[in-house]
Amino acid sequence: SHYGSSMNTPLTLSQDALRAALDRVHDPASGEGLVSAGYLASLDLSPDGKVIATLEAPPGIAPRLAKARQE
After folding, report:
1. pTM summary value
2. From its phi and psi, is residue 60 left (phi > 0), alpha (psi between -120 and 50) or beta?
3. Which of 37, 41, 46, 70 could make an S-S bridge to 54, C-beta 3.0–4.6 Å?
4. Cβ 68 vs Cβ 28: under 8 Å
5. Is 8 helix (H, G, I), strand (E, B) or coil?
6. What is the distance, to the nearest Å, from the Cα of residue 22 to the centroid of all Cα atoms in its chain?
7. Alpha-carbon distance 70 to 4, whole Å?
8. Which residues face 17 on adjacent strands?
9. Tens digit of pLDDT for each residue in 3-55?
10. CA 43, 48, 10 angle in degrees (round to 5)?
11. Distance separating alpha carbons of residues 54 and 41, to the nearest angstrom
């Protein structure tokens, strides 16, 4: 995992903070956060500071998650 850079600054994001932010994005149908709903497959931070989140969801719900993607 790239997470946990040796360059610790006040702007460094923790994995918990990233998960919490993703969980504030809700599945429009169930109202659950993406993490609580079990959609988060992996979470990483690139060396240049980009968050890389891989979401996996059951087939057939992609259309309803399209709205959440815009959030």
Report:
1. 0.64
2. left
3. 41
4. yes
5. coil
6. 4
7. 27
8. none
9. 444 455 444 568 888 899 999 988 877 889 999 999 999 998 888 888 889 98
10. 80
11. 5
